[in-house]
Specification:
8 strands; alpha+beta
Length: 169
């Protein structure tokens, strides 16, 4: 409401002074909004580069290819035995993952050399039983950014869910 009042006041002043028309003002405001959106995007990119330089950046993503053997409730992620994130899922979020979505679980900095991620998955497994499993991956952090994929899939052979972690090149 306040925004409309300010816009009206600016338009009235400019029109009274004979400087511009309402259409020109609307076009100028739209152009300014686009420039601000572009500037904000650039600032976010620069902030991420500053906070997470390539030499220490690691990102972890979660994907699911699950049918009937697992229903995800939460994920806890530990980096070098220190908890870095814990995420609880709603039904809509797990549905999005089922349909092929990928979630960025973590972006952070790690020291170069050997590091270890452990992911703990909690949910309901076959026949509605409570299910808690973990998967661990050790990786060498080099100068380039590192990407780790966590995936949950059904194993038709064992009628159980499988939890995997791999470094994506």
């Amino acid at each position: 409401m306040q925004r409309i009042a300010i816009k009206g006041l600016v338009m009235a002043l400019l029109c009274a002074a004979g400087l511009t028309s309402a259409d020109t003002l609307d076009q100028d405001m739209e152009s300014l909004k686009k420039e601000l959106a572009t500037l904000k995007r650039d600032l976010v990119i620069l902030e991420e580069d500053l906070l997470f330089p390539a030499s220490s950046q690691v990102s972890v993503f979660l994907s699911m290819d699950v049918g009937e053997f697992f229903q995800l409730d939460s994920v806890t992620l530990k980096l070098n035995d220190k908890e870095v994130t814990h995420y609880l899922y709603t039904e809509r979020q797990t549905d999005a993952l089922f349909r092929g979505g990928v979630q960025k679980l973590f972006v952070g900095n790690v020291k170069q050399g050997t590091n270890e991620f452990t992911a703990f998955f909690v949910g309901r497994g076959p026949e509605g039983r409570d299910f808690r499993r973990a998967t661990t991956i050790e990786f060498e952090k080099a100068f380039e950014p590192t990407f780790v994929e966590l995936s949950i899939s059904d194993s038709e052979a064992s009628y159980q869910p499988e939890f995997r972690a791999k470094v994506v090149e």
